[in-house]
C-alpha cells in the first residue's frame, strides 16, 4: 500500500509500485491540470512538487510525474497545480498573466509549478534562479521571453529567503495556500509503509529516470524495490580526506552540497546543463553508475577522480575501483542482487584541481556527444605528481584513460608534452559513428576537451591555440 498526501488530501493506493504518478493524478484523482505530453521527462508539462522532511524542515522540489513511480512518493507531499490555487491568483500566476507568459496554456501549469518550486528553494530569489528552475519546461508558443519577464517580475517582489521560514513566508505572501502549514505534522503522523522488503525478482530502482524512459510499459508491471527508502544509502561526507557519497543521493543534492563545493568549487555549474532541474531532483548516483551508459556524466566525473565504488553483496561489502566496475558494454562487475552503497574518492590535495567538460547539441536535456573529466596535481617544479583522466562517448564503456595517465605521470608539464599525450590518448579510444556524431568528430572533440583540461589545470600557462598549432 502506498500512502501520501496529494495537495490537501491523503491518498492510499494499492496500485503496482511502478505505476507512474501522473497516471494516478490524472486518471484516479481526476486532476487534469497536470498535463501529459512527451511522457519521457523531457517537456515539464507534468511537473509537480514533492515535499518531504529534512533536517531543515519541509523541503519541496520539482519532478516530472510521468516518469516517477509511485514507489518513490511513499510518505511524501505531492503538489499539483490545483494544490497551488488560492482565492485570488498569487504572484507567480499574476506575473504569468501580466507578462503574457501563456498562449495555448498547455505548458503553463508546469511552468507555474516549476517557478513555485524555484521560490521554495532559492536562497536568493533572482530572476536567473527562477529561470533556472524552469530549465526542464518547454513551451511551443511564447518564445520564452514573456516567461522570462514573468520570472523577473516575481523575483522583484522577493528578497532573500532563509531556510526555516520559507514555507510560512510564502503562505503569508500568497504564493502557496495555508494548508501547506499543516503538512509537516500530517506527514509525521502517517505511518511508513514498509517498502524495504524486496519481492521476488524485483528490480532495484533509484529515481527511475532512465528505466521509465527506456522500458516504461515493462516497468509499470515489474515489481520494484526502491533504493530511495534506504536511509543508509544517503549522505555526503568528507572524513580524513575521503569524500563519501551515498548511492541514494540525487544529482541535485550533489549540485547543491556545501561539502562538495569545497572540493570542486565549480560543481554547481558542471551540473547545471545535465538533464534538467526536475530530472536532477530525481536521478540518483547509484542509478547513474549502474546504468553504465558510456556517456554518463556522473560516471565520467567520478572516473576523473579515480573513485572507488562500494557494493553490498551476499558475502558483505566489496570495494573496487570504478574503472574496474565496467567490464564491457552495459556489463558490470556485479550480480543482479548487488546493491551499490556508495562512491568514495580521495579529495584532491591543495596543489590539485578537478575539471569537467561536456559537449552537446543543445544546452539542457541532452545526452553529451563527448564528455571528459580530469584531476591534475603538480609539484612545485611543475612535475605531474598525479593525473586522473576519463572520457565518455569514445568507447563501449565509460573510459578511464590509463595509458595517457601513465604517459603523463612523473613528467614536467609543457605544451610539447600535452601534444604528445594527445597522440597516446587517440590510440586508446575507439569511438563509433552514430546519431550524435562521426567517429572522427568525437576524436577531435576529445582532443580539444583534453587541451581545455590542461589549459585550465596546468600551473604553467598553456595556450590552446599553441597546442593546436604544434
Ligand atoms: Fe513531458 Fe512528463 S509529459 S516531462
Ligand atoms: Fe502553448 Fe506554452 S503556451 S505550449
Q: Termini distance? A: 65 Å
The molecules bound to the chains, other than polymers, are: FE2/S2 (inorganic) cluster
The radius of gyration is 23 Å
The major pleated sheet works out as: 5 strands, mixed
Shape: globular
Query: Going across the major beta sheet, what is the strand order?
Result: 2-1-5-3-4
The overall pLDDT, averaged over residues, is 92
In DSSP terms (H or I, runs of 4 or more residues), the helix count works out at: 20
Count the E strands: 18
Helix content: 25-40%
Low-pLDDT stretches are none
Helix and strand composition category: alpha+beta
- Estimate the strand proportion: 15-25%
What tags apply to this protein structure?
470 residues, five-stranded mixed sheet, globular
Amino acid at each position: 500500500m502506498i500512502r501520501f498526501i496529494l495537495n490537501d488530501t491523503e491518498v492510499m493506493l494499492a496500485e503496482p509500485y511502478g505505476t507512474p504518478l501522473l497516471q494516478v493524478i490524472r486518471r484516479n484523482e481526476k486532476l487534469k491540470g497536470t498535463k501529459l505530453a512527451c511522457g519521457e521527462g523531457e517537456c515539464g508539462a507534468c511537473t509537480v512538487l514533492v515535499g518531504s522532511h529534512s533536517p531543515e524542515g519541509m523541503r519541496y522540489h520539482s519532478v516530472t510525474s510521468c516518469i516517477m513511480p509511485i514507489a518513490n512518493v511513499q510518505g511524501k507531499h505531492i503538489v499539483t497545480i490545483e494544490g497551488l490555487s488560492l482565492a485570488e491568483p498569487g504572484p507567480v500566476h499574476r506575473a504569468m498573466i501580466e507578462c503574457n507568459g501563456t498562449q495555448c496554456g498547455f505548458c503553463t501549469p508546469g511552468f507555474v509549478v516549476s517557478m513555485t518550486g524555484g521560490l521554495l528553494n532559492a536562497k536568493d530569489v533572482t530572476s536567473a534562479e527562477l529561470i533556472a528552475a524552469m530549465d526542464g519546461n518547454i513551451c511551443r508558443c511564447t518564445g520564452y521571453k514573456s516567461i522570462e519577464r514573468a520570472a523577473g517580475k516575481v523575483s522583484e517582489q522577493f528578497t532573500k529567503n532563509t531556510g526555516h521560514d520559507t514555507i510560512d513566508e510564502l503562505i503569508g505572501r500568497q504564493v502557496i495556500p495555508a494548508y501547506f502549514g499543516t503538512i509537516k505534522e500530517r506527514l509525521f503522523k502517517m505511518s511508513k509503509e514498509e517498502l524495504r522488503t524486496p519481492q521476488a525478482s524485483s528490480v532495484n530502482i533509484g529515481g527511475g529516470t532512465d528505466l521509465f524512459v527506456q522500458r516504461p510499459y515493462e516497468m509499470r508491471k515489474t515489481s520494484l524495490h526502491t533504493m530511495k527508502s534506504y536511509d543508509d544509502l544517503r549522505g555526503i561526507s568528507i572524513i580524513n580526506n575521503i569524500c563519501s557519497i551515498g548511492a541514494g543521493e540525487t544529482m541535485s543534492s550533489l549540485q547543491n552540497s556545501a561539502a562538495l563545493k569545497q572540493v570542486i568549487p565549480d560543481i554547481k555549474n558542471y551540473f547545471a546543463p545535465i538533464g534538467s532541474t526536475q530530472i536532477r531532483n530525481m536521478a540518483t548516483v547509484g542509478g547513474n553508475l549502474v546504468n553504465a551508459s558510456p556517456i554518463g556524466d556522473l560516471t565520467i566525473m567520478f572516473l576523473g577522480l579515480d573513485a572507488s565504488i562500494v557494493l553490498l553483496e551476499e558475502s558483505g561489502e566489496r570495494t573496487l575501483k570504478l574503472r574496474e566496475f565496467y567490464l564491457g558494454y552495459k556489463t558490470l562487475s556485479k550480480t543482479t542482487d548487488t546493491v551499490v552503497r556508495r562512491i568514495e574518492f580521495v579529495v584532491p590535495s591543495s596543489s590539485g584541481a578537478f575539471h569537467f567538460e561536456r559537449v552537446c547539441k543543445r544546452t539542457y536535456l541532452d545526452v553529451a556527444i563527448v564528455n571528459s573529466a580530469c584531476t591534475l596535481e603538480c609539484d612545485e617544479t611543475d612535475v605531474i605528481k598525479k593525473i586522473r583522466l576519463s572520457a565518455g562517448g569514445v568507447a563501449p564503456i565509460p573510459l578511464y584513460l590509463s595509458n595517457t595517465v601513465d604517459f603523463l605521470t612523473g613528467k614536467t608539464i609543457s605544451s610539447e608534452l600535452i601534444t604528445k599525450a594527445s597522440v597516446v590518448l587517440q590510440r586508446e579510444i575507439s569511438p563509433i559513428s552514430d546519431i550524435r556524431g562521426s567517429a572522427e568528430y568525437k576524436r577531435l572533440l576529445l582532443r580539444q576537451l583534453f587541451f581545455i583540461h590542461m589549459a585550465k589545470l596546468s600551473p604553467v600557462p598553456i595556450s590552446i591555440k599553441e597546442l593546436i598549432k604544434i
